């Protein structure tokens, strides 16, 4: 258990650092006004999550999943885990559940950020 936790922690640090550097690079290259760095990490993270889940399964290397998927990609973007979960539901034939998961996650996450900001603003007002 401790070894797995260390793998996730190290992977998370690497992924978060890569996300930060991607955002810095995007800001320097493209400029402010639109979160291109976030879009880039969400798309790249989802692509990598899809590729890695297949590669690990084919190579019988799922022991690397905590480091690569939860750690590195989780630190890089949690959107990749969301995408994998949504696709898994879809591939299982749970189309309605997948749609509800996607819509609910997006709508509730947006509502939660609004609520969190309002609560924090109220606390500091």
Question: Main sheet?
Answer: none
User: What proportion of the residues is helical, as a percent range?
Assistant: over 70%
Quote the beta fraction: under 5%
Computed structural class: mainly alpha
Return Rg in Å.
Answer: 17 Å
Q: What is the quaternary state of this protein? A: single chain
- Contiguous helical run count: 5
Write the H/E string, N to C.
HHHHH
SSE order and pairing:
Elements: H1 2-29, H2 36-58, H3 65-76, H4 79-91, H5 95-124
Helix pairs in contact: 1-2, 1-3, 2-3, 2-4, 4-5
Description:
- This protein has 125 residues and is mainly α.
- It has a domain of 76 residues.
- It has five helices and no strands.
- Helix 1 runs parallel beside helix 3, helix 2 packs antiparallel against helix 3 and helix 2 crosses helix 4.
- It is globular and about 55 Å long.
Brief overview:
The chain is mainly alpha-helical. 85% of the residues lie in helices and 0% in strands. It is built from five helices and no strands.
Relevant terms:
125 residues, mainly alpha, 5 helices, 85% helix, globular
